[in-house]
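To the wet lab folks,

You asked to see what we're planning to order before we commit. Fair enough. Below is the target structure as tokens, and below that is the sequence we designed to fit it. If anything looks off to you, flag it before the synthesis order goes out.
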């Protein structure tokens, strides 16, 4: 991890540590339903990865492990990685409570290869992950380092266009560059999962265009199988979205996609 970004990562870690308790109690994460067997996975990743039974899976930036444990319930041998020690602590607690066999590691995702030495059939990451990283080249290299030959990388993520807007104003306003290199700092009350929470979120982030994402993976030796863009998101975290079908949200005019997904092989 670069010393240049250490202060940013430390601030983000403190915020995510504080988010864990708020999120675990939120309707957004619906922990009670999850404990009773409800999967936290969405249709895009389920369709893309299919039957994971018997496969090893590395989940990057796993928060408190719901998706990791959902893959584990489907028969995958999972390892989840996250920056937040409190998130990993709760993930381990849930793993034990549910009688699953996932492993969890607390570290900066860019340092994963220092802490996780295994190779995996699948590396997975999703929804609000790469914006926390200043440079995707080491991210792409780490993914290649952790995949078995012929292994699959899959990501589904919010589209870079949605991060061009400032959502802290009354009306979303286009403010940031599509592939802006300068760090973006935001400070606001609550979180996407509970806007009424009393905590103050202090966050440093970076914007990455699709070209940067694809190039970081291909430069690391992965072959891109597809890049898809989607109008519909399973998360209603941006203002003005409308529910077109149950549990799926889109913008009123569909002028730009909300998500993209990449599947690649080593």
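Sequence we intend to order:
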């Amino acid at each position: 991890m670069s010393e240049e970004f250490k202060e940013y990562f430390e601030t983000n870690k403190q915020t995510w540590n504080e988010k864990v308790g708020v999120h675990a109690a939120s309707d957004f994460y619906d922990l009670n339903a999850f404990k009773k067997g409800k999967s936290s996975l969405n249709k895009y990743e389920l369709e893309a990865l299919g039957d994971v039974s018997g496969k090893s899976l590395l989940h990057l930036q796993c928060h408190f492990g719901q998706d990791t444990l959902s893959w584990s319930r489907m028969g995958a041998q999972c390892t989840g990685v996250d920056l937040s020690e409190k998130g990993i602590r709760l993930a381990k607690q849930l793993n034990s409570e549910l009688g699953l066999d996932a492993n969890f590691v607390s570290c900066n995702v860019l340092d994963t290869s220092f802490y996780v030495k295994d190779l995996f059939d699948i590396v997975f990451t999703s929804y609000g992950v790469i914006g926390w990283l200043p440079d995707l080249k080491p991210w792409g290299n780490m993914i290649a380092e952790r995949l078995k030959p012929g292994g699959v990388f899959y990501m589904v993520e919010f589209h870079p266009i949605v991060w061009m807007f400032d959502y802290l104003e009354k009306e979303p306003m286009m403010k940031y560059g599509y592939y802006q290199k300068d760090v973006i700092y935001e400070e606001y009350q609550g979180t996407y999962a509970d806007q009424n929470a009393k905590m103050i979120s202090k966050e440093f982030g970076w914007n990455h265009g699709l070209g940067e994402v694809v190039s970081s993976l291909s430069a690391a030796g992965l072959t891109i199988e597809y890049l898809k863009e989607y109008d519909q998101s399973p998360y209603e975290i941006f203002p003005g979205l409308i529910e077109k079908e149950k549990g799926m949200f889109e913008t009123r005019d569909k002028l730009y996609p909300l998500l993209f997904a990449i599947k690649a092989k080593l």
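Structural context that might help your review: Helices lie at 6-24, 31-35, 43-49, 66-73, 85-97, 112-115, 137-146, 210-219. The chain has a mean pLDDT of 96.

Thanks,
Computational group
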